[in-house]
Amino acid sequence: MSTNTVDDKRKVTTARLIEMKRRGEKIACLTAxxxxxxxxxxxxxxxxxxxxxxxxxxxxxxxxxxxxxxxxMIYHAKSVVKGVNRALVVCDxxxxxxxxxxxxxxxxxxxxxxxxxxxxxxxxxxxxxRESIERILCAGIPVMGHLGLTxxxxxxxxxxxxxxxxxxxxxxLVADAHLLEELGCFAMVIEKVPATLxxxxxxxxxxxIIGIGAGNGCDGQILVMHDMLGINQGFSPKFLRRYADLxxxxxxxxxxxxxxxxNVDFPNEKEQY
Length: 273
Ligand code: KIV
What we know:
Blueprint: H1 14-23, E1 27-31, H2 35-43, E2 48-51, H3 55-58, H4 70-83, E3 88-92, H5 102-116, E4 120-122, H6 130-138, E5 143-148, H7 154-157, H8 167-183, E6 187-191, H9 195-204, E7 209-212, E8 220-223, H10 225-228, H11 246-262
Parallel strand pairs: 1-2, 1-8, 2-3, 3-4, 4-5, 5-6, 6-7, 7-8
Helix pairs in contact: 2-4, 4-5, 5-6, 8-9
The chain binds 3-methyl-2-oxobutanoic acid.
């Protein structure tokens, strides 16, 4: 009998992800932002679908994740949830909705859960946002952490380069990972850090570490859907593997359609009433 969750049609829960880590089964995660793509990704057997604030980049064309609003994230999450039967759906809390005041963080997290029906929220940061994480968890809302390269802090970092190469930053990341576990987060993303560091964290904590650009010692992997499908050709970091070349496929199909319309080849007799 296969132990792979892809063959298991039961709904993925936070508890089940922790159990997968315990059993040594890797966790497959991907972003999605709309109903149709979420449905395809879920049917393929994805364990976790993240409604990432990368929607700001790939859906809205912004340079950073900072401009996307809570209303826009709720809109995307609501569409994704409608297409998903099996995967756990996690929604990013956008920049400015949880860093300032933990009471506001809680009411914003409640809005996400009530209005989108996502099953968990993700927040970027460690000790600095402890109060917000605690308050959200107290309300029974599952929280996923996010450490390493945290794109909402791009103006502080000044670059999307690999994080935590120096000992002091690496030790802070390890301490933050332990803190997130102690607070009760069910998992965390670790983005763009040395593989040895991410593997160390995955060994030291009992909750799943989902890596992006963090090597294969993590408990699972996540990519941005547009990047791995080759829709977004302008972004080619070392860690990215492209599984399709949709840019060319879509371009070819659309060019053919334009030609067919111009040449009165479409619609033909069978394609009309
Ligand atoms: O917003 C996002 O897509 C993310 C992933 C890169 C983890 O946070």
